[in-house]
Write a structure and sequence with these properties.
The complex is a heterodimer of chains A (366) and B (58). Chain A has 366 residues and is mainly alpha-helical. Chain A is built from nine helices and eight strands. Helix content of chain A is 62%, strand content 12%. A three-stranded antiparallel beta sheet of chain A has the order 4-3-8, with no helix packed on it. A three-stranded antiparallel beta sheet of chain A has the order 5-6-7, with no helix packed on it. In chain A, strands 1-2 form a two-stranded antiparallel sheet. Chain B contains two helices and no strands. The chains are: A mainly alpha (366), B mainly alpha (58). At the A-B interface, helix 8 and helix 9 of A face helix 2 of B.
């Protein structure tokens, strides 16, 4: 049937022609689009940052005021004494909050102490000069993490309990998670750490895998949370890997770092080599978890930027052809991001297991 | 900016080679599929890290 492809091609050509005509016509009002591009850029950076309230969406009403729909979260500040208030009081930086005998104001996503008139002063390089109090707030990211942690607790408690009840057979959602748990044990932990020692690392590997995976998936929902794309979160996770690796390190692990050549060489021959080798090995201890934290952070951050930019295309094209294009691209990237969400969790767990394997190694001495 | 572009080209070629070689290896030894895939993902992740470092340096 040659008719169908021909028809398809002619429609496709028509689409392309219309697309370019629409584009050239639109190029004329470029000035308005510069403003729009700036707004989209701001929107993306705003999305990537953590926020003090859980806003679901916002719009500008007829009188030009931004209306935010969502719910507030508690702000906890330590500034000589404890200050606790709801983030709705900050009103996205519009209002000054009086707590105790001090005043606080939100400026570009950060809370600063101000005087009673609420003035925020800047130095020459445009940094805020006001004092920032120690911030222990339950932000959007923290709230999402608590949500996922609670979810995981009940999910895996019920999975563990179903083994007791049914005599070794999981029920419900546990049937979905059992193979994944077994995969982490048999294909990640065992080959990398060894049959004897993998048991004591399993709890961390499982927790970190599901925590990262669930948070990545949550980041793809329209809730708009970006937790694993926050460098502080990935830093915390990598710090745990770093601590576990080095605190459970055996004698052989440290010998490998400070005396990698062992008895295969005379001590005076080792000195010039070790001047170079030992600093590199010591640096390696820190580079390993550092690469972990950068990889997860950068992957999730980049995924969110790409996705948001593609959605932003819709507002730049402003044509009935641009929207399906933007939707199609965003849809395809979303599918890839679903894969990346799993892949990044897998790689973090895999590399953690690899590092634990180094720490747990025991050589036969010869 | 140009440097970041060059790095991304390099990273793309690198990951492409890793993927291609892994496919070849699986073709030669289909039994070792799991092990090759794991090694491939680790290598690809390491290369990818360099790419992101370049992108974030811009």
């Amino acid at each position: 049937m040659p008719l169908v492809p021909n028809k398809f091609y002619s429609i496709f050509t028509l689409f392309i022609v219309i697309f370019f005509t629409v584009n050239t016509v639109q190029a004329k009002d470029a000035e308005a689009s510069v403003d729009l591009k700036k707004e989209i850029k701001e929107y993306i950076t705003h999305h990537l940052q953590d926020a003090y309230d859980f806003s679901l969406f916002s719009y500008t009403n007829k009188s030009g005021k931004h209306i935010y729909i969502g719910f507030p979260l508690p702000v906890i500040l330590w500034d000589e004494e404890l200050h606790v208030f709801l983030s709705s009081k900050l009103d996205h930086g519009e209002k000054l909050v009086a707590s105790g005998n001090k005043y606080y104001k939100l400026d570009h996503g950060k809370i600063y102490r101000t005087d009673a008139s609420g003035v925020i002063s800047y130095d020459e390089s445009h940094h805020v000069k006001n004092i920032a109090p120690l911030d222990l707030s339950i932000t959007k990211g923290v709230a999402s993490m608590i949500l996922i942690a609670t979810l995981m607790f009940f999910l895996f408690r019920s999975l563990a309990r179903s083994y007791e009840k049914n005599g070794g057979v999981p029920n419900g959602i546990g049937r979905f998670f059992e193979p994944i748990v077994l995969y982490i044990r048999d294909d990640i932990a065992r080959p990398n750490i060894g049959d004897k020692k993998h048991g004591k690392y399993m709890s961390f590997l499982l927790t970190v895998f599901f925590f990262i995976w669930f948070l990545n998936i949550l980041g793809l929902t329209p809730l708009g949370v970006n937790v694993t794309g926050n460098i502080a979160v990935t830093f915390g996770l990598a710090l745990l890997t770093f601590l576990i690796t080095n605190l459970t390190g055996t004698k052989d692990y440290w010998l490998h770092i400070f005396d990698p050549l062992g008895s295969s060489m005379k001590w005076f021959a080792k000195i010039p080599l070790y001047v170079i080798l030992i600093p590199i090995e010591v640096l390696g201890i820190f580079i390993k978890p550092f690469s972990l934290l950068i990889r997860l952070y950068a992957n999730m951050q980049a995924g969110h930027i790409v996705l948001m930019s593609l959605i932003g295309l819709m507002f730049i094209f402003k044509s009935w052809l641009g929207s399906p294009l933007s939707f199609g691209l965003a849809f395809a990237i979303s599918i890839i991001e679903l894969l990346v969400a799993l892949l990044q969790a897998y790689i973090f767990t895999m590399l953690s297991a690899l590092y634990f394997g180094f720490a747990a190694e025991e050589h036969e001495h010869h | 900016m140009v440097g970041a572009g060059l790095v991304v080209i390099g990273v793309g070629m690198g990951i492409g080679r890793i993927g291609g070689s892994a496919m070849e290896a699986i073709g030669r030894q289909p039994d070792a599929y799991g092990k090759i895939q794991t090694a491939m993902l680790i290598a690809a992740a390491l290369v990818e890290g360099i790419g992101f470092a370049a992108l974030f340096a811009v």
